[in-house]
Design goal:
This protein is α/β, with parallel strands linked by helices. It folds into 2 domains: 4-88, Alpha-Beta Plaits; 90-274, Rossmann fold, CATH 3.40.50.150. It has helices spanning 16-26, 47-64, 82-89, 128-140, 156-163, 175-187, 216-221, 223-228, 246-250; strands at residues 4-12, 31-34, 37-42, 70-78, 93-95, 98-101, 112-115, 146-150, 167-172, 194-197, 207-213, 230-242, 256-264, 267-274. The strands form 3 sheets. A 7-stranded mixed β-sheet has the order 10-9-8-11-12-14-13. A 4-stranded antiparallel β-sheet has the order 2-3-1-4, with helices on both faces. Strand 5 (93-95) and strand 6 form a beta hairpin. The chain is globular. The N and C termini lie far apart (58 Å).
């Protein structure tokens, strides 16, 4: 371990969740989320990360036609405090019946424990889209139900469903996400029925629940495949939708009815059934 590490403190004036998604998709290391921004730490220089954040800020301003301020502060820290500071920054989270915690925290005595280390992959329950999807799984999944997790990420949604007794298939177009999902499943003493790199169209099965916590545009592109994977009386969970894109997404699911709508901050999760 090097004697020093680099720290980049980033403050943004708005759209914190969009910057969080950008970092989750691009960063090779974990980051700490604050109320007004992020703290990124690495033993390598963070100049390229700062440049990427500024480029993203400029693109976001043009796309949203509004001013978004960003402030980046560099520092060099002694490495001896790095692990302790990072671990102290990650707090366990209770969502419905689930208790999501990193491996260094004690499990719950009363809730269903899900152990996820934040650095592995996006999906720890702290983001509104993940939290809302967990609420849907907690409410609608029954023991013995079949579920497919489309865009499984860290595997947290699959693990939650398996902890409730569901038989789970999962897929992701990112091989790292598939690998991380397998690692996290083993960590939680559950096992996928099947998991693969690729799209949900690989499977010809029909499921009691189809969960897709991905971005709005992808939900429109694969709407046909998601609906084809659903049993006639099944539940379709669509998450990762910014509220301003909700109507656009729903226009691709006109043969579905809304069972429940979960909104948190600027994010919407839709629970649908086929008409």
């Amino acid at each position: 371990m090097q004697e020093y590490y680099y720290e980049l403190v980033v403050k943004v004036s708005s759209h914190l969740s969009l910057f969080s998604d950008f970092l989750s998709d691009t960063l090779p290391v974990g980051f700490e989320e604050k109320d007004d921004g992020f703290i990124i730490r690495s033993e390598d220089s963070l100049d390229t990360i700062e440049w990427g954040l500024i480029q993203y800020q400029e693109a976001l301003q043009k796309a949203l036609n509004e001013t978004i301020e960003i402030e980046c502060t560099h520092s060099k820290q002694k490495n001896s405090d790095w692990v302790r500071e990072y671990q102290n920054s990650i707090q366990p989270l209770a969502i419905e019946r689930f208790y999501i915690h990193p491996t260094w925290n004690e499990p719950s005595d009363t809730l269903i424990n899900i152990s996820i280390d934040p650095a592995l992959a996006f999906g720890t329950g702290h983001h509104p889209t993940t939290a809302s999807s967990l609420k849907a799984i907690s409410k609608y999944i029954k023991d013995g139900d079949s579920l497919i997790d489309v865009g499984c990420g860290s595997g947290i949604l699959s693990i939650a469903a398996m902890k409730l007794g569901a038989i789970v298939d999962a897929c992701d177009t990112d091989v790292v996400s598939v690998e991380n999902s397998l690692v996290n499943a083993e960590l939680n003493d559950v096992k996928f029925h099947n998991i693969w790199e690729g799209s949900c169209s690989v499977s010809t099965k029909k499921y009691d629940m189809v969960v897709a916590n991905i971005v709005a545009d992808v939900l429109t592109f694969i709407s046909k495949e998601l609906k084809q994977a659903l049993k006639d009386d099944g539940i379709l969970v669509l998450s990762g939708i910014l509220d301003k894109y909700e109507e656009k997404v729903l226009s691709f699911y006109k043969n579905c009815e809304i069972v429940q709508r979960i909104a948190q901050d600027e994010w919407v999760t839709l629970i649908l059934k086929l008409k």
